[in-house]
Amino acid sequence: LERALGNPERPVAAVVGGAKVSTKLAVLGHLVSKVDHLIIGGGMANTFLAARGINVGKSLCEHELTGEAEDIFDRADEAGCTIHLPYDVVVAKEFAPNPPSMRTCNVHEVAADEMILDIGPAAVEALADVLKTCRTLVWNGPLGAFETPPFDAATVALAKTAAALTKEGSLVSVAGGGDTVAALNHAGVAQDFTFVSTAGGAFLEWMEGRTLP
Length: 213
Known about the structure:
Elements lengths: L1 H5 L5 E5 L8 H7 L5 E4 L1 H10 L14 H14 L2 E3 L3 E5 L10 E4 L8 E5 L1 H12 L3 E5 L12 H15 L4 E5 L1 H10 L7 E3 L2 H8 L6
Parallel strand pairs: 1-2, 1-7, 2-3, 7-8, 8-9
Antiparallel strand pairs: 4-5, 4-6
């Protein structure tokens, strides 16, 4: 773990996903001073999009935390860390496997009755390009609602890119947390990452910069 955040080879990217910003505020606040690229996915991204004035429709979003999201944007600017948010997203009117209302659109085109359930293919391609410029990756949390297909597409695609870069020796990749391990196993690439930690809570505490026992 020390190789990934303590004294890493730069540039460093962090992927932080999952449902809620509230559980990962401390992590995000700590990471902006440590990494060069902060990739935000999952339901958390919606709160950051809302903080940027984007209408996220019925998406899972913690509107009361947009002020904290703004604060993280400011801190990232000061630290020279680039925050990556999706500019295309996969939306649907109902949360179910392969819903008929599913479509891919620009983040500015989400309708009031739609919810963002994954990041889109253009965003995934752009993020893959970011990883190709990096030497170190820390990953915690999925990019979309990966338990419900096809909203696992972005997580699987980016995980495969990270695994391929690790295999060819250009990236040190560290992932942790239960849902992250499940997502990497689902993508079939867990064994190709440099290190996978099954400890969710402890991994998050380490990412927050806290001293572990």
